[in-house]
Structures are given as structure tokens and as C-alpha cells.
Amino acid sequence: MAQADTDVSVPDDMPYRDRRMTLAAHLVELRKRLMIAAAALVVGMVVAFLITDPVIAVLTHPIELIAERRGDDFAQLNFDSVTAGFDMRMRIAFAIGLLLSAPVWLWQVWAFIMPGLTRKEVRYTVGFLGAAIPLFFAGCYVGLLILPHVIELMASFVPDAGAQFYKYDYYYDFVLKFLLVLGVAFVSPVFLIALNLAGILTGKAIMKGWRVAVVVATAFAAISTPAADITSMLLLAGILIVLYVLSGLLALLFDRRKRKKNPELFADA
Predict the structure, then answer these.
(1) What does pTM read for this prediction?
(2) Between these two residues, 42 and 194, which has the higher pLDDT value?
(3) 188-227 pLDDT, tens digit each
(4) What pLDDT, in 10s, does the model give residues 231-258?
(5) Alpha carbons 66 and 84: distance in angstroms, whole number
């Protein structure tokens, strides 16, 4: 049995835990953690399957608004096969079950890779996840708020004599991808910080690109929100710009700390 480490001044580049394992032992551990993660996912899907009705009600609310605006029933979610309703509920159950079981399977992934990380990498990873997860869910929430406006805008191009039937799988994929795009957009500043910590991008370079960031954020907000809803567009663009500026300011602080520790690395800056 290995002796406990009594040195309190362990370098940051040393492994977090000195653990020698054979390939077979790694595979056994990986299989065990995958089974635990899969079991948690199944439990999460079972729980999520029981609440699919209110979720479907939220997802189809934009379609109901379109039907009310048109004053007819020519806007409906279309289930074009015998198993279509069950298939959609399974899709929803998988997505929600994945979120519900995230604490379990994220911990299993973390526990498997943590022994190979240095203490500095562990701190960076914890900080990255601590910032990325709430920002991702915040982006998804904003996506839910503006989703009805986006679908209404697209439906406005349908002629009054036409019927707007949304195929269930296409509609679900559109909503899911839309929410994922908004979630990733909110997490993008965290990736900028990661690039800065890795020495790939300086804080000064991030701040210099503010004009491009404003244009991209405004264009993204204009595409994601209807043209008539200026308030939603400005709100979304403002949030993205503020997140970008905050990431640049944090990167400048990190560069300042690096400069104090290693001034030779910034001699040409």
C-alpha cells in the first residue's frame, strides 16, 4: 500500500493522485463506471417519461399561438405513424433523463479521469464546469423564452390559404438544436477563458476583438428573434456582449498574474 503524501508543497504539475493501474484494471473500472452512468440514465429516463405531457405542452405552445393567430386549426403537430407519439416521448425522456442523471454520469467521468490530472488541471476543470454548466442552462432558458417568437416569425411566411403541419421529429429536432445553440453561445466566453489559460489567446487580443463580437452578437440576436421584437433582440445581444467583455476582463487579470510570475514570457507583449 502506498504511503500517504506528507509534503504540503506539492508542485501543480504533479498528478493529483499517484495511481499505477494495468490496462485490464482500467478497462474494468471503465466498465463499472459506464454501467453506473447507464443505470442513472435509465432511472432519469423513467422519471422523465412520466412528465412528458407538460414538456410537450411547453414545446407545442408556439404552435397553439400560431393557430390562435390564424383563427383555425391549420397549425398542428403532425404524428404521421402509429409509433410516432411514443417515439417523441422517448426522445424527450432521453434528453431530460440525460439532464436529470448528469450529476451521476458527470461524477463517473470525473472520477475516472481525475487520477491522471495534475492539481492545476483539476482546479481549471472544476472552474470550467462551475462556470459552463449554469451558463449553458441560462442559454437554454433564454432560448425557451424567444422560441415562440422564432416559430411565429417562420410561420408568418406561410400563405393564408396554406396549412402549417409540423412533423413531430423535425419539430423536436429544430427545438432541441435551437436550445443547444443558445446554450453553447452562452458558454462561449468560458472557452475564451480556457484558451487564455492555455496561453493561446491573450486578454488584450480578446478585448481588441470587441467590435467583431458586437457585430456577431447583434447578427445572432437578429436571426434568433423576430424583426418586430426589438426588445428581445437587444436583450439577447446585450447579454452576449456583456459575457464577452467579462471574459476579456478576466483574461486580462489572468495575464497580469502570469506577467508577475513569468515576466520573460510577456517581454514582447
Answers:
(1) 0.70
(2) 42
(3) 888 888 888 777 788 888 888 888 888 988 888 877 665 5
(4) 777 878 888 888 889 888 888 888 888 7
(5) 22
